[in-house]
Predict the structure.
Amino acid sequence: MYDVCIIGSGAGGSPIAYELANAGFKVVVLEKGANYTEKDFNKDELAVSRRDMFTPPLSEQKHIINEYAPDGTFTRYDGEKSGWNFWNGSLVGGSSNLMSGYFHRLKPNDFKLKSVYGEIEGANVVDWAISYEELEPFYDKVEKIVGVSGKIVNHKHQEPRSSLSFPYPELQTNGVTKWFDKACEVLGYESIPTPRAVLSQDALKRRGCYYSNFCGSYGCASGAKGSARAALLQKCEAKIITDAFVYKLESDAKQIKKAYYYTKLGFAHAIKAKIFVVAAQAIETSRLLLNSKNKFFPQGLANSSGEVGKNLIFSAGGSGQGRFVFEKLTQKQQEELMTTGLFFNRSLQDWYEYEAEGKKYKGGTIDFLFEHQNIIPRVKREMYDAEGKLLWGEALAQKIHKTLTTSRVLTFEVFNDWLPTDNCSVSVDDTTEDKYGVLVGVINLNGHPHDLQVGEHLAKKAVKVLEMMGAVEISYNISSAPPPNLVAGGCRFGEDVKTSVLDKNCKAHDLENLYVTDASFMPTGGSVPYTWTIYANSFRVAEVIKKELSS
Amino acid sequence: MQTMKNKLSRRNFLKAGFLSSSVMVMSGCSLFSITTPQETLRVLQDDLFPKAEALGINTSSYLHIVFHHSRISKAEKEYLKNGVKWLNEEAVKLHKTSYVKLLSTQRENVLQNFVKTDWGEVYLADVMNYLFEAMLGDPIYGGNTKEAGWKWLQFEGGQPRPKERYL
Ligand SMILES: Cc1cc2nc3c(=O)[nH]c(=O)nc-3n(C[C@H](O)[C@H](O)[C@H](O)COP(=O)(O)OP(=O)(O)OC[C@H]3O[C@@H](n4cnc5c(N)ncnc54)[C@H](O)[C@@H]3O)c2cc1C
Ligand code: SF4
């Protein structure tokens, strides 16, 4: 019998494996994907970005998506037929292998959205069960163990920190960053070097970043990226079983007894453990609990509250861009612009909270970065002329050549709260099954109009910076389209057993030995990407489990 | 060794099946001619982006990979094949013969007409999608010979490069 069985080897599961295995406990991790190490990763655009080698084929595993309109009606999409893909990374270390590692902490007010900013009609906003102060030591721990590089600049929304600076110096930046800093100075904005879960030098028995130019979506061949695999699983003795798809947890009225999984060849196995930790990424975690219903929990495991799957959230906002063209630049600037590899790494948080028409709003973060270097989408975008007509032949060749060799796009990403609502949730379909014969997850999608209003406010600020920098073709798109890789909620934590699934330590209210440690616990998401918070919270829960097993 | 070689060529022959399978081109209700996706797509890709050949890149051989790729759906493969039929039917309608048998000015005329329909435009964009994959994917896939596509656009592929194809 294992002390701990963890389902899912990503950012949510791995801190538990690392802490418990290193404390001498017997830990097993069940991961449905395969294992890759630094030696296996490469920059094959066709395999990684066009053939989706790290996610399951939609013909074998998919979701059903119900997209809600403001009037409460919805349109149903079959993931396979529509190509709407919510998989992010099935491999040891999960999607954290493929992240870009833009790392921001939540801020103290993110933990008490309801108390500070009040109720918003149509949204299920609540305060968190813990405060920033309780999570802060674990944010700090992530900086040191996973490795966060950056430079602290004091700005008006800088959150309190127990360490003065980051343990690793900031990564090298492209010359264009200086244009950005200057533009911000003129505009009176506070330019922040973006903290990154990327080692800027050799450390922690991992190699420093070699500026491969292909970071987000790609596995890291140096180990510099703070993936759950490189930073945690490869640094502990937890047993990892790959190609193990967990389809059911078995329980009595008080405890989980076994986790059942299918191997690649479809054989069923079971694992016994004292404590079970689910971290299959928000959507799949709720799906597993719902699919594990039994006579003690007829609505789904740990679901006496009926809250499992409810209040799914994403990162709201959108993105925008501007282009810098040679015609408007000096020779030196042209060279700076076209230097690849080095990061842009700048963020703005001036409007993390702002006032408009006498009302206080919770705002968000804007990250600036160069357009992804994948060449095929950049070329394909040139296939149409200004009127949207398809081009071919010599005219197309000339357009592609000019655009790609004499200009470069700077993009920005806006992150603001995706307000939790009744129509944004996870359930399981009544009939549609995946290749294992297990009912697929249904993703109900609904965006609150408030999210768009805040997103617009932020995007307009970003546009001002691009204009000041001299960019052309500036555009942005704020929408309620959910970013599949930035997902949270579904198993809220809270004090009240009637309105939450987990207690403040992320243990199921209903069961003595079930914890959930991916982003499912988050009742609201903050206005940043989630991974730093997922890691920190999982380290926090690891302490609780360690105490429990020691007593 | 000999047996292995035979097996391989047999496999390649089977794999070649989809591209060399016949496509019936209809004129009204009667069968007008038979062509293969390979034949039409080779000429079509050259018409759409002659620069590839000028750079020494053979984009049509990459179509073998597309038609047999485990991660490209059957529906997508069927769609690519059906488009060959539609394009040829347009050629027959306008110039009374199949696409590959036309003069380049006539083919351009077919394309200009074909692109006016929504489905024609979407289809040509799809063909170009694979053309650019061939031309700008890693050279290991057999397009982008000697990185000619990347060099043309002053692009450097990321390191490390793949050691084998992902099929
Ligand atoms: C391209 C990309 C860029 C990103 N960039 C950033 C960024 O810049 N900053 C940031 O903060 N975040 C970023 N993210 C998001 C980040 O990767 C996630 O927030 C984080 O990895 C989530 O952790 P998790 O443990 O919930 O899920 P994951 O890390 O995805 O791990 C879940 C694991 O569970 C496995 N699993 C699922 N179901 C089962 C099952 N039934 N049985 C067994 N195993 C199962 C999956 O295969 C997977 O390996 C990015 C993500 C992607 C894809
Ligand atoms: S080497 Fe650096 S840029 Fe490349 S994937 Fe790793 S962390 Fe990202």
Chain A is about 25% helix and 25% strand. The longest helix of chain A spans residues 449-469. The domain at 2-62+87-152+172-550 of chain A is CATH 3.50.50.60 (FAD/NAD(P)-binding domain).
